[in-house]
Design brief:
The complex is a heterodimer. By secondary structure, chain A is α+β, with helices and mostly antiparallel strands. Chain A has 16 helices and 18 strands. In chain A, a hairpin with a 4-residue loop joins strand 5 and strand 6. Chain B is of the alpha+beta class. Chain B starts with 11 loop residues before the first helix and ends in a 10-residue tail after the last helix. Classes of the chains: A alpha+beta, B alpha+beta.
């Protein structure tokens, strides 16, 4: 089919003003927050599920690939078009359709920002647990596609633990529902499969999510350390004590300095590491638990610790953590976020290896991570105009993932595989495992048009 | 617990299946994953059908074929393969019972537990819970297996080993088949082992029991409880002699549990509920088990509805079920009905228009009349193609 015919067909579905096809417009959609770049043939702004179903049905018939895109904050190239296909753009499907307090559910469109949903729920005394650091900008649909996590996932689980149903457009254009407000749709856990599938098995057009009552009390403590290993030890010791905090977040000195220059969160510049600990729940017994945590911090050699006095101070401490990725951009023009996970007790070993890799490849690496669940985020800083440095960055990133896999962890905790970790899939999966995943994909997306080139390596691409 | 301890179960599987209308030619009871692999490789080669069975406590969650060539009894694959106390996870072979797992965990260090509590935990195996998506009232706080499982090992329809997930709490590497296989009822893969999260035993546990004289008060109370800051681990509601008996379990710091007991009883009193609180983990567990398990192996179905519809649906089901045991896991919208027959099933389907009705333990004759369990679009364009792709020769039972 000629390009003009595709454009006309898309315009008939979503309106003339809602299709982009000029190169200058398409350039914006050729990349996301990862390093990879693609090429879009068209961008279609959709307003409802019927638009999506009609577009997918048309593209399926014509054999044209497509990718759904929320805010484009993906960190592994998951939302870039690989072969000149159509970008189905969701920023206008950003409504909260229902807040159902009685049944503890919220129904949203996928283009809405995570934080917008949180703010609406907070007014009613409720919240949605997954809180990726990108929540100001990342969309709920994108969070679903990547199975996003966030600091509070230590206690409450990730996106797949909180999305209970979805209206989905299947790769053949059929629109249907998986799950809903009630639990336990019979049969295999299709929501579990869909969440984190990076838009390769269908496109979500509505989401039903679990919401929870805001806790009675929240306590946030900032602990200062002269070594990152000691901070990591505290994390293990708190969990071993039987206390599961809402969050356990660590930042190292490089990140602390960047954050302070940017956000002024009050982290001491000479600290080798800071640990943010948050407890939430009932008031009763919380002071005793925090006192015990403070004792553990002291035992592990914390230089100091202090509790946020009020919500304002707590927000400032968190602004530092949430702004960490953006803050490091002050140090070098670009960065690559690695996203490996290891069993919690392997954190010190993993961090030590990351330091060696930094030296080996002559690239600065900052560390900010969800320590409670062993989810590392080494930030490799570089100048993307320097081809040699970029090549070293890729090697360093791959080696960090191998370290994670070798320590019993995995190559992605919450950012997905996208295009950037396809080769590393063989570090954690055997041929038979990938064959089964590929079989599922082929069964659902027979023509291979639904966000092709992502998540699963092509057979020939495997090392 | 001894690793791979062999137990005698000869014939038990066949008798259970026979009582449900399933004829089987042969039982294989491997004690190792490699033995199970051999069984499946042979079945694939010889075009035989295989029905995996654990404790058979929710055997009808999938499709029961009229005849099977090989019943693969998983209870021989029993034991704790690994317990990582520092990282709070364990690897368990599929045939291990929930009580076996929790018995093991209680004896480790300061004591740990796995918060999965479907009925018949003394017989329910982790593989069976995996295959049937079994759950109990404690899902209110802890979720179900999908919230506790980190990794899974299994054997595919051609006898090949597969594994997904791992030992980390977060993992988005590839498709999440650890979750997808939950509820698949042995139709895609034989589950041979699972990596699970475990939790330190709470410092204090309690059970509050209150009775409400009327449905209206019960509904108002449960809505108030849900919107409060109290954090019950599990809540059950049973219709008893025209009234409603509510059990609520609390766990955590002793000061928190003490306050929750007090507030719970006070809140109940506002709606005419009267009762008491008892401290102790054993008494809590015994009370909850008594509420969710019937005497004997009754036929059973599960109904799920939106949370607010739970009490009213329970009351209507009780009218249908008569003396048969019915229980609501409040906060989850899940209702179990024991002693289910065709009339009760039809009634339940009518009541669950906003939810689902699923068989747990039913005779084949009732299952064969069940009708579609998922919407036709999903069945035609997702589930059937996946089944045909992963199990083209039909070694495992049909999916739904």
């Amino acid at each position: 089919m000629e390009k003009e015919q595709v454009r006309d067909a898309l315009q008939r579905i979503v309106g003339k003003e809602n299709v982009l096809w000029k190169d200058v417009d398409l350039a914006v959609y050729s990349y996301d927050a990862g390093l990879a770049k693609g090429r879009a043939g068209f961008v279609a702004f959709v307003d409802n599920g019927d638009h999506v179903a009609q577009i997918v049905s048309f593209l399926c018939k014509e054999g044209i690939s497509y990718v759904a895109r929320g805010s484009g904050t993906n960190l592994t190239g998951g939302t870039i078009p690989m072969d000149g296909g159509v970008v189905i753009e969701f920023s206008r499907m950003n409504r909260i359709l229902e807040i159902d307090i009685e049944n503890e559910r919220v129904v949203v469109e996928p283009g809405i920002y995570n934080l917008t949903v949180q703010n609406a729920l907070a007014e009613k005394g409720y919240y949605y647990a997954p809180d990726p650091a990108s929540q100001k900008a990342s969309s709920m649909g994108g969070n679903l596609g990547e199975n996003a996590g966030g600091p509070h996932c230590l206690k409450y689980g990730v996106t797949s633990n909180h999305v209970l149903g979805a209206e989905v457009v299947l790769p053949n254009g059929e629109k249907t529902w998986i799950g809903g407000k009630s639990l336990d749709q019979p049969g295999p856990d299709l929501m579990g499969l869909l969440v984190g599938s990076e838009g390769t098995l269908g496109i979500v057009t509505k989401m039903v999510c679990r919401i929870m009552r805001s806790p009675e009390r929240v306590l946030t403590m900032l602990c200062i350390y002269s070594s990152i290993e000691a901070a990591g030890q505290t994390v293990s010791d708190i969990i071993a004590e039987g206390i599961i905090p809402a969050t356990l977040e660590i930042m190292d000195n490089l990140v602390i300095r960047a954050v302070e220059a940017s956000v002024h969160a009050g982290y001491p510049l000479d600290a080798e590491a800071v640990l943010l600990i948050e407890l939430d729940g009932l008031t009763d017994g919380m002071d005793e638990q925090m006192k015990r945590i403070a004792e553990i911090c002291e035992k592990d050699g914390a230089v100091s610790h202090r509790l946020a006095k009020d919500a304002n101070e707590r927000n400032i401490l968190w602004a530092g953590r949430r702004g960490a990725f953006g803050a490091v951009a002050r140090l070098r023009p670009a960065y690559l976020v690695c996203d490996g996970t290891v069993p919690r007790t392997q954190l010190p070993k993993a961090l030590s290896e990351v330091k060696k890799i930094s030296e080996k490849y002559r690239v600065p690496i900052g560390n900010v991570f969800h320590a409670g669940d062993g989810n590392l985020h080494p930030l490799i800083l570089f100048d993307d105009r320097d081809a040699d440095e970029l090549a070293r960055v890729h090697k360093a990133g791959s080696e960090i993932l191998k370290v994670c896999a070798d320590l019993g962890g995995t190559i992605s905790g919450e950012h997905g595989i996208g295009t950037e970790k396809l080769r590393e899939m063989s570090l954690v999966f055997k041929d038979g495992d990938i064959r089964m995943m590929r079989g599922i994909r082929q069964a659902v997306d027979r023509k291979g048009l639904c966000n092709p080139g992502k998540v699963l390596p092509a057979e020939e691409a495997r090392p | 617990m001894t690793k791979n301890r062999a137990t005698t179960n000869d014939g038990a599987c066949l008798r259970i299946l026979e009582s449900l209308g399933v004829a089987a030619k042969q039982v294989e009871r491997p004690t190792k994953e490699s033995e199970a692999q051999q069984v499946l490789a042979r079945a694939f080669k010889e075009k035989l059908t295989v029905l995996p069975v654990g404790g058979a406590t929710a055997i009808s969650a999938g499709t029961l074929p009229e005849r099977v060539d090989i019943v693969l009894d998983t209870t021989g694959m029993e034991g704790i393969a690994d317990f990582d106390i520092s990282n709070l996870n364990m690897t368990v072979l599929a045939g291990t019972t929930l009580d076996g797992i929790n018995g093991f965990l209680a004896g480790q260090g300061n004591g740990f537990f796995l918060p999965l509590d479907p009925p018949f935990s003394q017989r329910a195996t982790i593989g069976g819970v995996y295959a049937s998506n079994g759950s109990g009232p404690f899902r209110l706080r802890y979720g179900t297996l999908r919230d506790q499982v980190l990794g899974v090992r299994g054997i595919d329809a051609q006898g090949g080993e597969v594994g997904f997930g791992g030992k980390t709490v977060k993992n988005v590497s590839g498709y999440d088949l650890t979750k997808f296989l939950i509820g698949s009822a042995g139709s895609l893969c034989l589950i041979t082992a699972a990596v699970l999260r475990v939790y330190p035993l709470p410092a204090a546990s309690s059970i509050c029991e209150v009775t409400f004289p009327a449905l209206g008060e019960l509904e108002k109370f449960l809505q108030t409880l849900r919107s409060s800051v109290l954090l019950p681990s599990g809540v059950t509601v049973e219709p008893v002699k025209g009234a409603f008996r509510v059990l609520s379990a609390f766990e955590g710091h002793p000061l928190a549990v003490e306050r929750e007991n007090r507030d719970f009883l006070s809140m109940a009193g506002t709606f005419g509920g009267k009762g008491e609180a008892k401290m102790g983990r054993e008494v809590m567990g015994k009370a909850i088990r008594g509420a969710i398990e019937p005497e004997g192996d009754a036929m059973a179905i599960k109904i799920t509805v939106p949370l607010s519809e739970g009490p009213r649906t329970l009351a209507r089901l009780k009218e249908l079920a008569g003396a048969a045991k019915t229980v609501l896991f409040a906060g989850n919208g899940e209702i179990l009905v024991y002693g289910a027959d065709e009339r009760i099933i039809d009634g339940a389907k009518g009541l669950a228009s906003n939810g689902y009705v699923a068989p747990l333990r039913l005779h084949r004759s009732l299952l064969s009349k069940w009708g579609p369990r998922v919407n036709p679009t999903l069945e035609q364009f997702v589930l059937r193609p996946i089944k045909e792709k992963l199990d083209p020769s039909g070694v495992f039972p049909p999916m739904l």
